[in-house]
Amino acid sequence: MKRLLYSAVAAVLFFASCAENEEVVQSNILPSGDFVAMFDEATRTELDGSSVVWHENDQLTIFTNTSHNRQYKIKTLTEDGRTATFGYVGYTGSDNTMIETNYAVYPYNADATLSNGVVTTVLEASQSYNTTNGGLCYALMSAASEDNNFAFVNSGALMRFKVSNILPDEFTLNSIHLTSANHKLAGEVTINLNGDKMAVVTENGVNSITLADINCKVTSEVQEFYVALPATTFDENDLVVVFEFAEGNKEFTLPAFELKQGKIKTISYSIADAEDFIGSTTLYKPANNEIWYTSSDGGVVNPYKVEAFDNVNIVSNTYVNGMGIITFDGDVTSIGEQAFYECDSLTSVTIPDSVTTIGISAFYFCTILTSVTIPDSVTTIGEMAFAYCHSLTSVTIPDSVITIGNRAFYVCESLSHL
């Protein structure tokens, strides 16, 4: 298990021998003493800008030849997690086929094997939630070294689910289950420790993965839950997510996205309607008199032109539990001209089903807007509607759209597909 500390730094694991100037591995002599992993501000493992430090239950697999799977276990750990003493537990195999490079893999797997610099290990299909570690189950890490210094990299990726409840009712989240139609998500993986160190699920893998043992009351405070996955590019509707609540299940499919090695993909979900659990297969949407959004600074985003919403007026604009909600005194049918013009802190927008028109320059120069959800009700996207949205990575345009104005997505250089 790991806990997160915030720091964008590299990772180096130092193993120091008990005897002065003694190498950890010499010829075919097996290490038998305790070794120290020391960390400082410049030497911690990084995962997408967050440092991952040791937890008292951590164990490593260390290979010093192709036959030996050696288990190292933390004996002592400093409070900040930066210094740990690892004790040698044992090994399997025999003293033959020595190699010059040492290899390490986290977490420890007694069945892990090494051949020609490629380790075969396991990415667990059932991962357990741990409240003491900020919800982070584990990060699959590996390292190769010609000496006693191991620079760990993250061989997989993480999905982070931010879950909250804006209702007065209580709900208990028991587990999160992910299933892919086209990709293996867990089970046996191979990692080329002489290459990119990316975990690749073999044909023996499975297409589903579960974060179990959550059993948490979902409150107004945003709670984070992490699932370790291999780096994968998912097509639209390829990945199905099921939140298993004690009160019922919530199932939805995700749009196309890329899950990159060493990165975290964040999905936010807030319980906003108790009936949402009954027979629903899509993520809860804004009411027709609401627009949902997120901002880079966690603060309220004010529209550039408050009169741009087709004869309805703004009643309130709040930002709670990681989501902003603009509420109107009637159904919103149009996001008019320059509605969110140059709103430079806007990062995502979810448009209600009542909207039929996105007007001229509606989101012009929203430079850090990364995603927008356009409902099936929209028929027209105006000229320059999303022009200069430099960070916009993908937009799904529904079949209902008849007209797209000139240069609607002009200079959206991050846009990978429509």
User: Widest sheet: strand order?
Assistant: 3-8-7-6-9-13-15
Q: Can you tell me the overall shape?
A: elongated
Number of strands: 37
Mean pLDDT: 77
Query: How much helix is in the residues?
Result: under 10%
The value of Rg in angstroms is 25 Å
Question: How far is it from the N-terminal to the C-terminal residue, by CA?
Answer: 39 Å
| Class from helix and strand fractions | mainly beta
Tell me about the biggest sheet?
7 strands, antiparallel
Strand content: 35-45%
Number of helices: 0
Poorly predicted runs: 1-46, 93-99, 278-283
Short structural description:
A hairpin with a 6-residue loop joins strand 18 and strand 19 (199-201). With 418 residues, this protein is mainly beta.
Task: Describe what this molecule looks like in 3D.
It is a single chain. The protein is mostly beta strands and 418 residues long. It contains no helices and 37 strands.
Q: Characteristics of this structure?
A:
disordered N terminus; six-stranded mixed β-sheet; 37 strands; mainly beta; single chain; 418 residues; seven-stranded antiparallel β-sheet; elongated
What's the arrangement of secondary structure elements?
Blueprint lengths: L2 E4 L6 E2 L19 E5 L6 E3 L2 E4 L5 E7 L3 E9 L5 E10 L5 E9 L6 E3 L2 E6 L2 E3 L12 E5 L3 E2 L2 E2 L2 E9 L5 E10 L6 E6 L6 E3 L6 E5 L3 E3 L4 E7 L2 E3 L4 E7 L2 E6 L3 E3 L4 E8 L18 E6 L18 E7 L2 E6 L5 E2 L10 E5 L6 E2 L12 E3 L6 E2 L12 E2 L7 E2 L14
Parallel strand pairs: 12-20, 16-27, 31-33, 32-34, 33-35, 34-36, 35-37
Antiparallel strand pairs: 1-5, 2-14, 3-8, 4-5, 6-7, 6-9, 7-8, 9-13, 10-11, 11-18, 13-15, 16-22, 17-20, 17-21, 17-24, 18-19, 23-26, 24-25, 28-30, 28-32, 29-30
